[in-house]
Amino acid sequence: MARFLIVKVVIGLLTAGAVVFSIWYYQGARDEFRRTKVELPSHYKHFKKNNTSKIRAQSVFDHGVELLKEKRWEEAVREFNYLIHFYPESEYFNESRRILGDLNLDEYLAIENKKNKILYEVKQGDSYLRIAKLNKTTFDAILHCNEWTKLKSLFPGDKLLLLPLNFRLIIDHKYKTLQLWSADQWVKDYPIERMNIEGFKIASSYKIGNKMGFANNRRYSPQSEGYRNARKSLALKDSVLELGALPIDEKQDVGYGFFL
After folding, report:
1. How far apart are CA 94 and CA 84, in angstroms?
2. DSSP 8-class letter at 87
3. Which residues contact 203 (CB under 8 A, 6 or more apart)?
């Protein structure tokens, strides 16, 4: 069930009307991420030199977990950032990066975080589809930001809180992950469960073309009623490859591409 919740977040957020997203393909994007500068927590500047890397990494990880328990989020983020940059071979690396991704995504989606959201005033003739396309967002994102369980009737002058979804995707072949970025800010990694790309020459970048959903052997467009609960798929423009969710029956043939 956890995998399908992950897929709902990443694929659901990326199917916003006519929005075009870039997908970049690398052999080791995570390695480049590690080379970026990171703030060193002050209490680690005087680490004993005779401590092994394993002991240091465990100390950092344990301290980060304690900070999480105390809800000291910013300090916890510094701990885990420090660990993944300086101890990339540590057994705590993957879990630290997963925790960071969860914290980043929670912050990105938090209604209280107004930095990445806009207040939109409904105009005469507006529909949810037009608003979503105009502001690069989705119906689900509108529901989330306005704390609704279903879409309501629109009237001119109504105010909507919107979350524009300006994402960049990086497929990291080496680590079999899909990285979600907002501008130059890494948000989260998602594991790629299956890559059916053997025999294909993979380009360094793609644009997303058609968006579709599949359910009960039927295909649904983003505007159709059955799309929201269907298995989502994003076709890569000028290619037969796609980025999509695996079906419940993982043995089912899904074609060529990258599947979460």
Report:
1. 8
2. -
3. 25, 239
The encoded tokens of residue 107 equal 């912050």
Map residue 161 onto helix, strand or coil.
Answer: strand
Question: 99 exposed, middle or buried (CB, 10 Å; 0-12, 13-18, 19+)?
Answer: buried
Q: Give the C-alpha separation, 189 to 181, whole Å.
A: 9
- The residues near 210 (Cβ < 8 Å, ≥ 6 apart) are 234, 235
Distance CA 199, CA 222 (A): 31
One-letter amino acid of 199: G
Gap between the Cα atoms of 211 and 208, Å rounded: 8
Residue 15 burial by Cβ neighbours in a 10 Å radius (0-12, 13-18, 19+): buried
Left (φ > 0), alpha (ψ -120 to 50) or beta: where does 155 sit? beta
Q: Decide if 120 contacts 131 (C-beta within 8 A).
A: yes
- pLDDT tens digits for range 70-97: 999 999 999 999 898 888 888 999 999 9
pLDDT in tens, 111-127: 999 988 999 999 999 99
Tokens of 49: 């030199």
Dist CA 69 CA 89 (whole Å): 25
Residue-wise pLDDT tens digits, 20-62? 345 666 655 555 555 445 455 555 554 544 457 778 889 999 9
How far is residue 41's CA from residue 232's CA, in Å, rounded to a whole number?
41
Phi, psi at 169, each rounded to 5°: -110, 140
Tokens of 196: 């059916």
Handedness of CA 199, 204, 210, 216 (dihedral sign): positive
Structure-block tokens of residue 73: 């989020």
Residue with tokens 């989020």: 73
